[in-house]
Amino acid sequence: MKTIDLNCDIGEDFGRYTLANQKEILQYVTSCNIACGFHAGDPSVMRETVKIAVENGVKIGAHPGLPDLVGFGRREMAITYQEAYDMVVYQVGALQAFLTIEGEKMQHVKPHGALYNMAAKDPEIAEAIAKAIFDISPDLILFGLASSELTKAGEKLGLRTAHEVFADRTYQQDGTLTPRKQPKAMITDQSEAAQQVIRMVKEGKVKSCQGVDVLLRADTVCIHGDGDHAVEFAKFIKQQLQNHDIEVKAFI
């Protein structure tokens, strides 16, 4: 039987602003990526999110991003190797403190937004992120875009690396995600999204926007937690995977 991890980006509230129903969506995923204060989240949100994730038995990872609250970490910045390294160390360390208080162990690290996409293409940024994770703890798992520079960098260092695919995003023929600013970047139809995920898990292929099949490895599927119908979407995707004899469990 095929297996797959379902991960969700959460803890992306900030102050008085709430983006998603975290408690409910955690019933349908097996791991979560908690924002660390740069692109979203704040100390109180981080603490509460860790607590909720622990209560639901969901594996916890850090979700470090670029320092861009206004742009939600989705705007690229010109950063150096050292800056990328330091950003990851700082944010992972902040989340780790809250996990220590709860007596919980961090499972993984997954970069957010523009930092994630930059690392998928830029070997230097990818290496900086992977090195930061390795230096913090070689036992941490790196989540990165399937078959990208980031997963290559993690594997080169000897990190356990989970190749990530997306349920609600379309792909380009080079294996990268279609930029959000372009038309048809998002998949809004649940059935279409489920079909794409099932094919990626079972066949290791996805149809690109150019109509070409792209080969990829699927270890974990991202379910975005900030959408209007995020909970309904997560529940549907999990059910469809199980209906096609795919076991949903954490990547360990």
From TrEMBL:
The keyword Transcription regulation does not apply. InterPro entries: Glyco_hydro/deAcase_b/a-brl, LamB/YcsF/PxpA-like. It comes from the Bacteria. Its EC number is 3.5.2.9. It holds the Pfam family LamB_YcsF. The keyword Nucleotide-binding applies. CDD domains: LamB_YcsF_like. It catalyses: 5-oxo-L-proline + ATP + 2 H2O = L-glutamate + ADP + phosphate + H(+). Keywords: ATP-binding, Hydrolase, Nucleotide-binding. One of its GO terms (biological process) is carbohydrate metabolic process. GO terms for molecular function: 5-oxoprolinase (ATP-hydrolyzing) activity; ATP binding. Belongs to the LamB/PxpA family. Catalyzes the cleavage of 5-oxoproline to form L-glutamate coupled to the hydrolysis of ATP to ADP and inorganic phosphate. Forms a complex composed of PxpA, PxpB and PxpC. This is 5-oxoprolinase subunit A. It comes from Ureibacillus thermophilus.
